[in-house]
């Protein structure tokens, strides 16, 4: 009875070979999984740490007061630019 369940030699060989060509190697799957895990952990750590510059607002944020928030920050430096006055 086992003979009736076995496929002829040419019937299943083509489908199995084609399937093996489409499946990526296990090392590539492992690398992609590790890459996704690393990205997920780094994103979670970054989200937990918060913004780098808390006072910095994105381009989409408007204050509604018309205040531009100052220039490039050179006025805050005081006399550090001149040095020898």
SSE series: HHH
Strand content: under 5%
Summing up helix and strand content along with how strands pair, one would put the structural category as: mainly alpha
How big is the Rg?
32 Å
Mean pLDDT: 73
Helicity, as a percent range: 40-55%
Shape estimate: rod-shaped
- Unreliable stretches: none
Number of strands: 0
Span of the ends, CA to CA: 104 Å
Number of helices: 3
Largest beta-sheet characterization: none
Summarize the structure.
The protein is mainly alpha-helical and 85 residues long. It has three helices and no strands. The model has no long low-confidence stretch (mean pLDDT 73).
Word description of this protein:
This protein is an all-alpha fold and 85 residues long. Helix content is 45%, strand content 0%. The chain has three helices and no strands. It has helices at 2-5, 13-22, 26-49. The radius of gyration is 32 Å and the shape is rod-shaped. The chain starts with a helix and ends in a 36-residue tail after the last helix. 0% of the residues are buried. The model has no long low-confidence stretch (mean pLDDT 73).
